[in-house]
């Protein structure tokens, strides 16, 4: 069975364009879906965050509206409770040896836009995973973490790669809107990524070699399923 590193933001807020602080963290559906599907398939997961800090769930993702109903919200909260020991004591990214893992999975929420996008330890992990051809699977706002992967020559490691990400359309219409400090789709395009968008709020997964990415929370199941298929090859 495979060993999987799940990189999760440690941020609990995002500095907005107007200078205010927007409460955030990881999006519960994304972390839960990936964690559950991968562990149920028999793979082991280590959760890691910047500094080894306990990650914060975006409370909006645990509300009935954000989760898709009260029953679903309770289910997500219940699963997070079940893995509380893992969430309470994650690995520090600085202590992670990327060579120990078969895949790196990055769920979203706006948190990665506050810390993972420029994290030096994530940079090291992603550059190693990319060089070794290991599976790298970011989805929704998780691809913000890819922005950290600037090689020693100043080149973006994922320039020219096809990927999916939470789109500008989704951010402006249903994300944090016009007050968003920067747009992730635009930032990745500016770095040279080949962003491929699908319909808003529908599952959309893009596979480019070892890079498996998803557009939004609705893509969570399909991303995890695609990672499982890739691990079996």
From TrEMBL:
<feature type="domain" description="DJ-1/PfpI">
    <location>
        <begin position="30"/>
        <end position="229"/>
    </location>
</feature>
<dbReference type="GO" id="GO:0019172">
    <property type="term" value="F:glyoxalase III activity"/>
</dbReference>
<keyword id="KW-0456">Lyase</keyword>
<dbReference type="Pfam" id="PF01965">
    <property type="entry name" value="DJ-1_PfpI"/>
</dbReference>
<dbReference type="InterPro" id="IPR002818">
    <property type="entry name" value="DJ-1/PfpI"/>
</dbReference>
<keyword id="KW-0346">Stress response</keyword>
<protein>
    <submittedName>
        <fullName>Type 1 glutamine amidotransferase domain-containing protein</fullName>
    </submittedName>
</protein>
<dbReference type="InterPro" id="IPR050325">
    <property type="entry name" value="Prot/Nucl_acid_deglycase"/>
</dbReference>
<dbReference type="InterPro" id="IPR029062">
    <property type="entry name" value="Class_I_gatase-like"/>
</dbReference>
<keyword id="KW-0808">Transferase</keyword>
<comment type="similarity">
    <text>Belongs to the peptidase C56 family. HSP31-like subfamily.</text>
</comment>
<dbReference type="GO" id="GO:0005737">
    <property type="term" value="C:cytoplasm"/>
</dbReference>
<dbReference type="GO" id="GO:0016740">
    <property type="term" value="F:transferase activity"/>
</dbReference>
<dbReference type="GO" id="GO:0019243">
    <property type="term" value="P:methylglyoxal catabolic process to D-lactate via S-lactoyl-glutathione"/>
</dbReference>
<keyword id="KW-0315">Glutamine amidotransferase</keyword>
